[in-house]
Design goal:
By secondary structure, this protein is an all-alpha fold. Helices cover 71% and strands 0% of the residues.
Amino acid sequence: MATETDAAVERGAATRRRRSWFDLDGTGGVLEPTPGDLAGRCSSRLSGRHPLVGALAVAAAGYVVMLAVLVGLGLLVTRVLVDTAVGRWDESVIDWLARHRTPLFDDLTMVGSHLAETPTVVLVATVVAVYLLVRHFAQGALLLAVGLVVEVSVFLTTTLLVPRDRPDVPKLDQVPPTSSFPSGHTAAAVVLFVCLGLLSRARLRHAFVCRVVWGLALLVPVVVALSRMYRGMHHPADVLAGMVLGVGALVVAVTAVRVALVLAGCGTSRVGPPPSPATTGAP
């Protein structure tokens, strides 16, 4: 009996240590686990694992799924649609944009492209993640980390498996060695800025500020996508695939955070029976 009691005490202490990494005053909207959701079902298979182990397992599974989706789309674009009306439209859009370049839009799209350059994304994500960890909102930092890691991993693997030449127009940026498919800038912009929108909803109390952040979160990826096409770096199909990748990486990241919260004993879909009145202090 003493052994079982000691084990229960140790499990309780471990749960409290895990919870200490998370802000329990509400995880905020879409990050909140709910009964019967995908995170709850995944957590039942990972019961007893450390929250970070559970999050990594979800990220790995998400990587495989998103890679299959992106490679499938890439083969469709480069092998099936290339000589169809869709493929010709994909090329004609870039030709039209190249013919209508102006000095003003050259400058504006340079700024738009830099919004999702690797140094920009890494700097913003690092600053935000450190701030969230200091504020004991580890699930927010985890959301950013998983989303960006899944995005860049799938992006780099896809560019190796689906080679596609960049548009045959003068380029306004230095051409990287990666394939034109998909647009990594667009995918990174979706993950980073929509994550900031989700985090603002969870942490900010001022409705107007939240609306401003959400407006930017939805606008910036579109600006980045248009800028990359204007500057001759990607076809329309490439930036659309980048958006699919960004949204998919976000879904994986949200699921990973929910699983981590469940395994940490937070949220409404935690694994195991609900606490008894004696432990909660309820009458």
